[in-house]
What does this fold into?
Amino acid sequence: MVSIEEFRKLAMSFPDATEEPHFEKTSFRIKKKIFATFDEKNNHAVLKLNEIDQSVFCASSEKIFYEVPNKWGKQGWTIVELSRVRPEMFEDALIRSYENVATKKK
It folds into this structure.
C-alpha cells in the first residue's frame, strides 16, 4: 500500500517536479506536463507510461495496474490502485512515468 504522503514525497523528489491542482485531483508535473495524478476519492494514481511499460505493468498485475478506460488509456495513461500496490513496484512505475514525460521530444 502507498499513502498520499509517500506518493507526494517520491513525486516531489524528482528534479523540477511541481504539485498543482488538476480539476478535483492533485497533479505532479515536469515542465508543466503531467506525469502523475492522485485521485483522493478513489485512492488511486494515474501515471503516464509508454506503450511497453504500460503493457508490462498491466500484464503483471491486472488488479493493480490497468489502462484508463477511454482514449487516454490508449495514450499510456494507467490507473494504479494505491491500496494494493507494493511500494517498490509503485516507485518503479512512477520513475518510468516521470522519465517518459521529462524526456519526451517536442
Remarks:
- The radius of gyration is 12 Å.
- DSSP finds four helices and six strands in the chain.
